[in-house]
Amino acid sequence: MTLHLQARPFLNEGRIESLVDPRIGGDYDGEEARRLAFVASLCIRSSAKWRPSMTEVTNMIGHTLYLDQKATNACPFLK
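^ thats the sequence. predicted structure below, dont judge the formating
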């Protein structure tokens, strides 16, 4: 079974925590995981014409990372 076939039910049901590496435990930002899972769900659409380009993917992920970095810089106690 391919990775996307294993992941799809969890993505469809919104069970993102089931996709997170168990070695991480609960030490991750749930909202960030949901945003990245959304991007991943776009990438595994069955029709290639409905999938984002890699540029679009990096922009979506980069925007998330940029916002996180901006928040960290604005709040030094988060570092």
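Confidence is low (pLDDT under 50) at residues 74-79.
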